[in-house]
UniProtKB/TrEMBL annotation:
Family assignment from sequence similarity: Belongs to the helicase family. PriA subfamily.
Protein name in the entry: Replication restart protein PriA
Role summary: Initiates the restart of stalled replication forks, which reloads the replicative helicase on sites other than the origin of replication. Recognizes and binds to abandoned replication forks and remodels them to uncover a helicase loading site. Promotes assembly of the primosome at these replication forks.
Keyword annotations of the record: ATP-binding, DNA replication, DNA-binding, Helicase, Hydrolase, Isomerase, Metal-binding, Nucleotide-binding, Primosome, Zinc
Cofactor: Zn(2+)
Binding site for Zn(2+) 2: C543, C546, C561, C564
Pfam families: DEAD, Helicase_C, PriA_3primeBD, Zn_ribbon_PriA
Domain of life from the UniProt record: Bacteria
Stored HAMAP family: PriA
Main enzyme class: isomerase
Cofactor notes: Binds 2 zinc ions per subunit.
Keyword Metal-binding: yes
Amino acid sequence: MLEFTDGQYTDRKTLFVEVILPLAIAKNYTYRVPYELNNLIAIGKRVVVQFGKSKMYTAVVCAITEHPPEKYEAKYILEILDDRAVVTDRQLHFWKWLGEYYMCFAGEVMNAALPSALKLASETKVQLNKDFEYDKTALHDKEYLIVEALEIQPELTISDIAKLLSQKTVMPILKGLFEKNIVNISEEVNDRYKPRRRTFLTLNPAYQGQDNLKELFAILEKRAPKQADAVLAYIKLARQQKAISKTELVEESGAGASSINSLIEKEVFIAEEKNVSRLYFEEEDLDANFELSEQQHGAFTSIQDQFKQKDVVLLHGITSSGKTQIYIRLIEEMMAQGRQVLYLLPEIALTTHIIERLRKYFGSSIGVYHSRFNDNERVEVWQKVLNNEYKVVLGARSAVFLPFADLGLIIVDEEHETSYKQFDPAPRYNARDAAVFLANMYKGKVLLGSATPSFESYYNARTNKYGFAEMTERYGGVQMPIIEVVSIAEETKKKTIQSHFTSVLMNDIGVALANKEQVILFQNRRGYAPVLLCKICAYTPKCINCDVSLTYHKHSGKLHCHYCGYKEDTPNICPACGSTHLEYRGFGTEKIEDELSLLLPETRIARMDLDTTRSRNALQNILNDLEEKKIDILVGTQMVAKGLDFADVTVIGIINADSLLKYPDYRANERSFQLLAQVSGRAGRRGKQGKVVIQTYDPSHRVIKQVIENDYLDLYLTEMEERRSFHYPPFYRIINLDIKHKNPEILHNQAIYLGNELRKHFGADRVNGPQVPLVSRIRNYFIQSIMLKFEKDGVSINKVKAGIRDIITQFQTTQLSKGSIVQPDVDPY
């Protein structure tokens, strides 16, 4: 386009941007860039755009072009939110791969990747900007009407404004008001990230001389003794630290904020507001002088050597063999090269526990990232990683989305854990597998660590795809725990069982408590009782939204659904037959805690499960109390199995191993072994041999024997024969399709149709189902599942996924698909 400027025609470029919207749409949308923003637009910046008739979103620019879209007229972007890109080119490439591999949309990946404070979506609400003074007389008639209405009612929806003006299209008018800074299109359109501000104090140079300071004290002691105390406290703090905040001085002096304010007014103190990190931790003296044992040194050297040939190495080290110390040495090596390290852990429980140990070695150069952080904290970590301020990031699975500059190493600790897999919502990614691709993008390395590796990783190591290092002894020569299996049936017959605790377990608990040692009890179910049952008619309360029975929670006195969060009061009378004979069947962690407190009333008992760790610092407080020996017995779910390391835990009790072993899943034996071995590994970790008591109705079960003998290889070889025979991973790839609908009959027809189409395309032997899953209704949606299995050799998985997408798309164009949801899940287990 030619433009007449300064007496001559010049070429004026019209730019268009392809953006990722935070929506589950199949294609990225293209917008036009206003000419005045041409020099400011860049890939990776966030822009505010209108999508649809009345909704505004924050989108991320992923491409810039001079070609307009062919099928529609491009709207203008409304605003650029960033001075510099907040998403890097490598991240956009990573997002694209995740979307393609896990068969989801780019917008769904963006939603998972960006902290919510960076997704400034504003869909419906409009408010006046209270921080801006405006002249109503300068407004157009329709703008005036909107502003006048907002002065009466502080918030209006887009539809309210459309009714007010008697017209459908109101966004251009709102855009004008927005650009004039008069309105906010939803409060989130103002960037929600605000740095934390603190007031720091310095003593006025006029009082820093000895004589002047004495004169000041003489005056203050007579007229304002509390202010004199504040000055004294300041001098004391100034000997210990450089920066002194107003909050610290108030706490140290006990003088109160008003006294400090008076000293500021008198210009005794000079106050200055500064941004401070919410993530500040006091730096400790670094202590990296530990020595690796001979076994650790051998594993460390082997990993270094194999990294020359392989991008991924599996470290198979039994529990308490000292894997963390090897990780520390590898991190030091990578930091010396000036490269970044990502240390992934499966649970926030592990993250909070291990961070204290790692800070001892790496101080403030280590950052932490997980979902328990609030929006502002997550954005702060994001920005520090973007600026290359953090050399090491410790995080749960979402940390793979951070904007690394030069990622040299990813450590995936406890790589077998199912917590690395996101099940809902999309992208249904596995952070372990994503880490392998991510490291490859940066030409970095991946170390997978586990005492009980996933069969996929172990298979890759045995077939030479991955490198392999092994440690078979506990660090410091500590012996593996004694494992005793106790038959619940036998003890019930002999009447030696108390509540859910066998005589063997109660005796071992008593010995541990007498020796001032600690106990962990594992029960793989939270709540008080899984089932409330009428003894007369067998009625069981079920969730109104999901096809599951409700679990009784004693602390709330209510029945809870663990799938959708529905709660209802516990009935005293059976609603089916009117009987008062209702009883609780089964038991969860809450009931274990309750009954143990009756049996051992003097014992300090705590519980660690999803219910007790919901609040921000609850988890850390429990772990601190265990470390400081304020807890004698910790009762918990799978959280207690994962990597906890406490010196005085000598007895582990597994209350009911059968709930793990009898689960209808081809991975049940693998998962059972992993969980039992991991829980057992919490016992006797530092100088003391521990004891593990496994309570079960089936003491002769093969997996229990393999756990006792710590024979992972026997488990692996046995299970792999079955996997090969029945076409399961690692020999085959699995893709699940979940079809959901609120009407079970319509769903049945939809699932049959899809199943038939998939069989026509891929062959009957590769398509299993449709079938009803164990939980057949969640949040009022009925579910049917189709499982597809594909050989790893000789089949292009990309072509397979393209075929599945085509079939789903074709299905969604038919009348039959109305009201349905189809969710692909790649590598679902």
